[in-house]
């Protein structure tokens, strides 16, 4: 299922990019793709389930209950969910998964930036640490538009992001985001210059 989804996503994004690049300003169009959402889901519990609504409502499922339906798992007959072990594997090499922001398994995502007229390194990898809040400041600076202070008469709260454009031309450029805080449901993490301190609260 994941492979099929990724194959279709790759194909459709490719179609979109081909269309953009075919326009007169295609090579001067900045495209930023965040290629994930929030990490693999662990809601299937340790055993997995034939009915995801069961686990979301605190009703456990069992392997014995699922085995007779094994050939139907993944088909329209069930709203099944894989066991938590698969979520952990899907986050590899990072720890934890969706809804656990204290470890990168639940927060780290791929991002692809394409801008042919400004980025010549078409297959390069960047390792600078950034957050999704850095995308808007990057776009504004790239196109030379200042961050608006007032929109339709309403004062705007300044963004907390930083521009990451310096890494476009130089893979070894120093990162511009030094510190980032994460929190959901009491799980917390603080990143600072390559170090992470994390707090995960397990089930009581």
From TrEMBL:
Gene3D superfamilies: Alkaline Phosphatase, subunit A. Belongs to the sulfatase family. InterPro entries: Alkaline_phosphatase_core_sf (IPR017850), Sulfatase (IPR050738), Sulfatase_N (IPR000917). It holds the Pfam family Sulfatase. It comes from the Bacteria. Residues 3-145 form the Sulfatase N-terminal domain. It comes from Roseibium aggregatum (strain ATCC 25650 / DSM 13394 / JCM 20685 / NBRC 16684 / NCIMB 2208 / IAM 12614 / B1) (Stappia aggregata). SUPFAM superfamilies: Alkaline phosphatase-like. This is Sulfatase.
């Amino acid at each position: 299922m994941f492979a099929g989804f990724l194959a279709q996503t790759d194909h459709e994004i490719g179609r979109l990019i081909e269309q953009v690049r075919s326009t007169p300003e295609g090579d001067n169009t900045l495209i930023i793709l965040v290629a994930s959402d929030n990490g693999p889901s662990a809601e299937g519990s340790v055993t997995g389930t034939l009915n995801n609504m069961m686990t979301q409502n605190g009703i456990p499922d069992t392997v014995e209950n699922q085995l007779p339906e094994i050939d139907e798992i993944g088909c329209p007959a069930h709203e099944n969910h894989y066991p938590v072990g698969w979520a952990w594997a899907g986050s590899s090499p990072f720890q934890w998964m969706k809804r656990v922001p204290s470890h990168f398994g639940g927060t780290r995502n791929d991002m692809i930036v394409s801008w042919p007229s400004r980025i010549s390194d078409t297959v390069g990898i960047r390792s600078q640490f950034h957050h999704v809040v850095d995308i808007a400041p990057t776009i504004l600076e790239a196109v030379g538009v200042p961050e608006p202070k007032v929109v339709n008469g309403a004062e705007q709260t300044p963004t907390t992001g930083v521009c990451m454009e310096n890494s476009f031309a130089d893979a070894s450029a120093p990162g511009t985001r030094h510190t980032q805080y994460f929190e959901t449901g009491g799980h917390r993490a603080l990143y600072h210059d390559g170090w992470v301190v994390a707090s995960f609260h397990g089930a009581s």
